Each structure stands twice: as structure tokens, then as C-alpha cells.
Amino acid sequence: MSQILIVGASGQVGSELAKLLSSQGQDVRKATSKAASAADQVHLNLVTGEGLEAAFQGVEKAFLMAPPGYTNQDQLLGPAFAQAKKQGVKKIVLMTAMGADADPEAPLRKAEVLLENSGLDYNIIRPNWFMQNFNTFWIQGILSQQKIFLPVGQAKGSFIDARDIAAVAAALLVKDDLKNQAFNLTGDEALDHDEVAQILSAVTGKTIGYEEISPEAMREGLLGAGLPADYTEFLLMILGYFKAGYAAQITPEVEKITGRKPISFAQYAQDYKQAWL
Q1: Helix, strand or coil for residue 45?
Q2: Helix (H, G, I), strand (E, B), or coil: what is residue 174?
């Protein structure tokens, strides 16, 4: 059986993708930047390049994403594409982000172009903002003050569940009928953060609200949480795009690729209810 490499296998999408592919009987190899501690793991550090050759040994297809916290995504992913080509990998599914193709000078777009020009069969998936941000990155304000604190005004976002992204990636890795295409992935409804707060309130029985904060306050919070300065500025930039309305687009791609409708925000909130209690 051919082997599928998953980079980011411990993350929101990668962990779900590994479970999905394994349940389908696929032979999954999970990349970890730490020392491999299980038979199905392989050490790979995209930041240093350590483990690249071993990670792709015997791999037929791979799911790739840049490690979080870094803004030079093209420099980190380029060597992985080259190594995959050298070792005969047949297909790459790359996860970037919705809007990555808007600026040809953006590192994420440069990474996409490197893959497009690599000679490898590929798919690029560009998901919108994750629903799971509310039970991870934005959770502290919800737990401590029952507030979502973000600098995004009343703009709407078509949030997507990480489980849907994983389902799309799994389908694209297994099937070849959609190869060499890119897809913008969204949920099937666009919500502002007041509406998000109302859903979380209804599910948890708490009174959760949304409060707009300034970019300066957001910067202070991100830096205080230990994020690098360049990545902090990157997040503020894309949050600015959210406020400008660029995250409201709804696409049919999840249903087109998986054959089912995307998970609703209400369903996500119910499934992750314990995170906010």
C-alpha cells in the first residue's frame, strides 16, 4: 500500500486528516518536529530542513502546510517540494489560506507558485478562518471575561470547521479527478462576531459577548502571549482584511469535493461545548 505523509499531523487539520485516512485503511506517516515516538511517526523540521529526505522516503502522496508562527512560508516549503519531486512523490496537497493568491508578493502565494511550477501533481486548499479558533486562540477572553476580543468590527466571516478541511484534504489525496486545481474553502454561512457570541451563549448557557478592540490592544495581547513580532504583524494584517469584508465570501467547494454540506457553526459549538464551560 502506498504511504501518505502528513505534515502538521498534531494540528487541528492534520490530526483529523490522519484519523480520516487511517479509518479508510490508508498507510499514514505523521511528521513531527519533535523526536519520533511512535511507529507511524517520522521526524521532520521544516524550519531547519532536518529529516526531509527520510520523511519522504517511500511516500506516494503528502499533505503539507507551513509551520505556524512563521511568515517566510515559501522558504520553508520550497525545499520540501524539491525533496518530494526528487524522491518520486506523486501528489502534494498544500494548505495555505483564503486570500493567499491576492498578492503575488505574499510568501504564501510564492509557496503556491513554487508548487504549481514544481512538476508535481498538486491541489491547493485555501481555508477561511477556522471555527476552532474560538476554542483555542480566542478562548482566553471567553473564559476569563465571557468576551470575544478582536479588532474586526461588524464584518462577517464564513468560518470553516477544521474537520471539513481535513475531509477535503483526504478526498483530494485519495482521488485524482480534481488534480492541479486550487480551492477556497468556507462554511455555508457568514457570521459576524455578535452572531458567533449568540451561538456560543445559547450552547453554553453563559452570556458571551463580542467586544471590538483596537489593533494596538490586539498587538499588545499577541506579543504578551509570546508570538514573534513579525507573525504578530501578519495576524494584524489578515485581521484587517477580515474587518474590510474579505472573509465573508461563501464557496460551494466543501460540498463539491466531499459530497456533503459543511458543518454549521451551531454544530461546531455543540461539539466543542466543553471547551467553554
Answers
A1: strand
A2: helix
Q: Are 254 and 160 in contact (CB under 8 A)?
A: yes
**pTM, 2 dp:** 0.96
Looking at residue 2, its pLDDT comes to 79
For residue 265, give the C-alpha cell. 457553526
DSSP 8-state assignment for residue 127: E
Position 254: which residue type? V
1, 32, 160, 270 alpha-carbon torsion, rounded to 10°:
100
How far is it, in rounded angstroms, from Cα 250 to Cα 265?
Answer: 14
Q: How far apart are CA 233 and CA 178, in angstroms?
A: 35
- In the DSSP assignment, the letter for residue 78 is H
Q: Provide the 8-state DSSP code for 121.
A: E
**Residue 86: exposure state from Cβ atoms within 10 A (0-12, 13-18, ≥19):** exposed
Query: pLDDT by residue (tens digit) across 111-164?
Result: 999 999 999 999 999 999 999 999 999 999 999 999 999 999 999 999 999 999
Domains of the chain by range and CATH?
3-128+161-185+249-263 (3.40.50.720)
Q: Residue 207, Cβ neighbours under 10 Å: how many?
A: 10
Q: What whole-number distance in Å separates Cα of residue 34 and Cα of residue 41?
A: 10
Q: Cα(14)–Cα(139) distance, rounded to whole angstroms?
A: 21
Amino acid occupying residue 262: P
Cβ–Cβ under 8 Å, residues 185 and 126? yes
Rg of the chain, C-alpha, whole Å:
19
Distances (CA, A) of 32 to 77, 120, 125: 15, 23, 21
